[in-house]
Amino acid sequence: MEIHLPDVPVMEIFSYLDAFSLLQAAQVNKSWNLAATSDSLWRKLCKKRWLCYDLSLDTLGAQTWKEYFLRKTRQEHSMSRAKPEDFIYKEMSGDFGMAYYLSGSGLTYNGQGKSIVCVVTSMTRLTTWDIREVSLGAMTWVSPIQPTCIMRLATLPELRLAITVDMEATIKVWNCYDKDALATNSMFASCQILKAVLTKDGPIVLAGDDSGNLHTFRIPDLHLISRVHAIEFAINQLHCSPQRKWVYLNKKHPHVWPKVYLMKSLLRPSEYPTPVCTTINYTLSFKAFWTPRREDRITLLSQRGPRQVSKFVTFDIELERTEDGIDAKGKPYHLRNFSIASFTLPSDVKAPEWMGVSDKDVIVCSSGTSLLVYNMKGFQLQRLQDYPAEIMRLLVDPLHVIVTYIDGSLEVYMWEESSPYLKKCYHLQNPRHMGMLPKTLCDNVSIIRVVTKGPNCCFLMAYVLKVCS
Q1: DSSP codes of every residue in 266-310
Q2: Nearest in space to 187 (alpha carbons), one of 203, 158, 210, 156
């Protein structure tokens, strides 16, 4: 005999389930199926996983939030399931500079769609390229020549927007199909780092300048929301937490301590005349990585002394309301941080240049030709040495780790779902040896990078998955 619970408690219980559990619950009976396919439940899961704030289903190209979740999940795993022969290698020579994805998903539900890359060309132009076209030379848009060189580039793939800052500290927003910029403003100081993000208060761009100021602009009109003097030196590290609750700022310097700001206090200056922040008492941190799909945990990597002794320290950030609602400085909150784990790498391990963290609180770093995996306490889980060349860069995200070697080849790993270990997927050879190896980027169906071989010799390179459903 079936037991029917009232709709309200069923929905409340289902709101705590993950996607797999919801799919299982939908098989029990018609009543549970109706509840488990509710758009409100799947919308909550999508927002938690991909930050789809204020984005409509029409914008995302789906009929329901369940459809979007399942399609997006399949897309995310498409690169992990691939084989080297499933990729098409493409390259094009030109005067390329910085490059970032302008499209966020790659394949659509039916296997079609576009993978758009935004590139600074000849230092004074912004161009976009559809790298899934038969020829990589499929340029889809070009901006007018800018008065001065473009020094910084950021993109907001969710809204198909690009943001640039030039040598004169002029910041612009582009929709990458109109001739002119949507909006223009000035920072009045040289921009050192630029980051565009989607928040609960809407899309914004964060910019750190060489005087230690953090500028927060609204997108797309570039209204200056706030400007905060954060540190005494140029800001060259800026990382937002996964759900955009915190902003981490730093510069590797013996007299600079990193700071973490409450994002909401930067976006609502009328409510927070003094931004809420905490100082992490830890200097010479040159890498930082928020734990994916967790809001309050960040891991720092420091190197000290002539032997470059490397140490990982993991901090939790905590926001506390004061007992009487306000403290002596007029602030309604206390923000504090505390170390929960740390360890020093053995002296026989070469100092790592790159690192990342998985959502299982596992740290991965490169050391010479090896990929090392540790838990937060410093216990080594894996030492992977699948290719004899030196590791030059790492790309770490919640699903993959992509290793770039000195010869330009790539190794793709994925995080195992039920364990804290990495599993090798495949190796992609570089068709020819290149020069300076830059940042490697990927979406769901391609891997790209701009490689510089000489002063006037650059290549936009891409490994593109063949059309699949």
Answers
A1: HH-TTT-SS--EEE-----EEEEEEPTT-SSEEEEEEEETTTTEE
A2: 210
For residue 195, give the nearest of 186, 203, 187, 205 by alpha carbon: 205
CA 403 vs. chain centroid, Å, equals 16
CA-nearest of 209, 191, 103, 87 to 155 is 103
Q: Among residues 407, 311, 428, 416, which one has the least CA distance to residue 365?
A: 311
The owner of tokens 């216990």 is 379
Q: Which of 454, 401, 430 is nearest to 87 (CA)?
A: 430
Element holding 433 (H helix, E strand): none
C-alpha of 80 from chain center = 18
Q: How confident is the model at residue 469 (pLDDT cuts 50, 70, 90)?
A: very low
Q: Which amino acid, one-letter code, is at 143?
A: S
Q: At 75, is the secondary structure helix, strand, or coil?
A: helix
What is the rounded distance in angstroms from the CA atom of residue 59 to the CA atom of residue 324? Answer: 44
Q: How far is CA 227 from the centre of its chain?
A: 23
Domain boundaries, the chain: 7-75
pTM here is: 0.88
Angle at 27 between CA 22 and CA 28, to 5 degrees: 100
Encode burial over 288-306: b for 16+ CB neighbours within 10 A, e otherwise.
Answer: bbbbbebebbbbbbbbeee
Query: Do 175 and 160 touch, CB atoms closer than 8 A?
Result: yes
The model's pLDDT over 226-263, given as tens digits with 9 standing for 90+, comes to: 999 999 999 999 999 998 999 999 998 888 999 999 99
**Partners of residue 373 on adjacent β-strands:** 364, 382
Integer Cα distance of 289 and 272 in angstroms: 27
Q: What is the pLDDT of residue 35?
A: 86
Q: Containing H/E element for 86? A: none
pLDDT one-digit tens code per residue, 392-415:
999 998 889 999 998 889 999 999
CB atoms within 10 A of CB 88: 16
Segment 261-273, tens digit of pLDDT: 999 999 999 999 9
Render pLDDT for 174-219 as a digit per residue (tens, 0 to 9): 999 999 999 999 998 999 999 999 998 999 999 999 999 999 999 9
Report whether pLDDT(24) > 50.
yes
Given the candidates 2.60.410.10, 3.40.50.2000, 1.20.58.100, 1.20.1280.50, the CATH classification of the domain at 7-75 is: 1.20.1280.50
pLDDT at 276: 93
